Hints:
Its EC number is 2.7.13.3. GO terms for molecular function: kinase activity. It is found in: Membrane. InterPro entries: 2CSK_N, HATPase_C_sf, HATPase_dom, His_kinase_dom, HisK_dim/P_dom, HisK_dim/P_sf, Sig_transdc_His_kin-like_C, TCS_sensor_his_kinase. This is histidine kinase. By secondary structure, the protein is an alpha+beta fold. It has 3 domains: 5-157, no CATH class; 217-297, Orthogonal Bundle (Helix Hairpins); 308-454, Heat Shock Protein 90, CATH 3.30.565.10. The chain is built from 9 helices and 14 strands. The protein has helices spanning 5-53, 68-72, 150-185, 187-197, 217-263, 270-303, 314-331, 350-367, 421-431, and strands spanning 55-58, 61-64, 82-88, 93-96, 112-118, 121-134, 137-148, 310-313, 335-340, 345-348, 373-380, 384-391, 435-440, 447-454. The chain has a 5-stranded antiparallel beta sheet with strand order 4-3-7-6-5. A 5-stranded mixed beta sheet has the order 9-11-12-14-13, covered by helices on one side. The protein has a two-stranded antiparallel sheet with strand order 1-2. A hairpin with a 3-residue loop joins strand 11 and strand 12. The radius of gyration is 52 Å and the shape is rod-shaped. The model has no long low-confidence stretch (mean pLDDT 90). The structure holds adenosine-5'-triphosphate and magnesium ion. The site of magnesium ion has 5 residues, from helix 8.
Amino acid sequence: MSNSLRIRLLWWLLVPLALYVFVTGKTEYDNARRTADLVQDNQLVASARMIAGEVEWRDGFLNVDVPPAALEIFASPYRDQVFYSVRADDGRLLAGTPDLPARPLLAPDVPDSYDTQLHGQRVRAVDLVRLMYDNGATRPVRVTVGKTVRSRDAMTQQLWRPQLVRQLEMIALAVALVCIGLTFELRPLMKVKDEVADRDPMQLEPIRVERLHTELRPIVDAINQCIARLGVQVAAQRRFIADAAHQLRTPLTLLGTQLQFARQQEGLNPALDEALAAMHRSNRSMVGLTNKLLLLAQAEAADNSQLAMEGVDLVPLAMEVVEDLALLAQAREIDLGAELHGAAPVLGHRGLLQALIANLAENAIRYTGSGGHVTVALSATTDTVTVSVIDDGPGIPAESRSRVFEPFFRASNDTEGTGLGLAIVREIADAHHGEITLKAGEGGKGVDIAVTFPRATPK
Ligand SMILES: Nc1ncnc2c1ncn2[C@@H]1O[C@H](COP(=O)(O)OP(=O)(O)OP(=O)(O)O)[C@@H](O)[C@H]1O
Ligand SMILES: [Mg+2]
């Protein structure tokens, strides 16, 4: 059987209803047929009595004149044929057709109705016996009147058909109502499906569907419990990464200091100095990685609303970032400019928002060759605040643009880096309901990346 709920329910409904209609239909047909038989039998008996009343002795012989009225009572629009016969007890035919079948004699004056066949037609007939007295002896005379069954069948149909039609209409109505009702009643289930299907993989809030059926509630509750368990698991993993990064930072910093101290020792073998320098570089990138991991964990926690938000103006933050990176830009002979006018208030976490701008600006400076230009700009409308960083460097190939926000994805390995910068940017943007747009800069050159936040309204 099909797995569709609609079809299964229809089966549950249709099979018993069809059986019910079949059984009641048969009973109703039998009842209708009995009623039609009764009506026809009454006519037949009346006719037979009329004919029997005309049997008389004439000149010592039994004789009968069939009155026209005895046959006229059968007049009907169905053009039924009427047959009759009057026979004496010795089998002599007094009147009528000889073809009506002979049957055993019955008690006098008790009509007997039966179905029979005559000339290939179905016939309903009645036998009636009348006793004729002849000099103290009795002679039974049998009158048989038969009529084809067209009008009887028509009457049966007229009595039975409307009931059948009504029952079939009821079934059709039930089917239509089940289909319409199911379509309406399945809507909450479809809503639950949409709620689950449209979810971001990391969206771990419980499913909320209004006006949920009692039957669906346990399913949604079970899914919500599963989501809650997943949330606990994810939070534990994030905490573990944050804790691990935090724990690693102190020994790595210590190691860096010690390596620096070791390299300052006099009379150092050049090969050993080279090895120490390489160790120092590795140490630096490990410190960079743990710092970014920690930042990413913080940003993810903020995305789950675990950080307190405050009103922050992005202008001084961006200014600070530009000042911090000025030296790096100078070293790489890059013209670092800022377009920071007016106020750009957003609701958020100061440290994370600064990290967002810093990561974008750092990327622009890092990936733009010497002689390039990098601009950090802020713009605001009545509803939004947009921070954008534009450079005229090599740009990001269109096919990599959707992937640069994945953790550890790097478009090229020519320079050092962890591949976490833009993943952090995305987490911070999400935590602040920000929208990121990434496109090529002016004239298809470089990168134009912008994050638009909802503007904070002053209290
Ligand atoms: N302004 C840019 N110009 C050209 N390529 C860029 C620019 N910004 C990012 N990319 C490309 O996107 C990749 C991902 O950037 P992301 O900041 O996430 O990582 P990263 O800079 O490689 O490492 P990290 O920032 O963690 O030290 C980079 O490796 C680089 O290839
Ligand atoms: Mg980066």
